[in-house]
Design brief:
The chain is of the alpha+beta class. The chain folds into 2 domains: 16-78, Arc Repressor Mutant, subunit A, CATH 1.10.10; 92-161, Gyrase A, domain 2, CATH 3.30.1360. Helix content is 37%, strand content 18%. The chain has helices at residues 20-33, 39-48, 55-65, 115-125, 147-161, and strands at 68-70, 73-75, 95-100, 105-110, 130-135, 139-144. A 4-stranded antiparallel sheet has the order 3-4-6-5, covered by helices on one side. Strands 1-2 form a two-stranded antiparallel sheet. A hairpin with a 3-residue loop joins strand 5 (130-135) and strand 6. The longest helix is centred in the C-terminal third of the chain and has 15 residues, at 147-161. It is elongated, with a radius of gyration of 20 Å.
Amino acid sequence: MHNPRNFMQAPRVSIDVHHPVSRRAAILRILRESPVHKQEELVKVLRKQGFDATQSSVSRDLRELGVAKAGDRYIIPAQEDMAPANPFAAVARFVLEMRTAGPSLTVLRTMTGSAQSVTVAIDKAAWPEVVGTISGDDTIFIATEDVRDQRKLADRLRAVFNV
């Protein structure tokens, strides 16, 4: 019987440098050693070092690592033992405005390029009134179940971000 795999190139054996955990460790090392301004730069450096990297895998890795974009470059999160008492301290200054849009949607405006970093902090807080978040470049949508939860959320956001 004909097996189409015989005509295809054999699959690459996955080795350590292709594993996401190894790639994430390399990302942290790269960000510690030099400033990185764009994901494309990080992809190129990782590929030069032998890692399988695409823009989407790097984007996912940055999100999983809690890496924030501060101004024009990526910054790694503080070590757990050196983390500030306020987990929002690193991103609080990026939030510019808060508004509501109906009884269960809250909208945050951030500095350009900062919305994802702020969203990661909100998601990690795991506030019970938050149903979900969506972020763009400078806007975050936060869904709540109802107006009561929206008020609780607004109180938290005002306290954390001074908006």
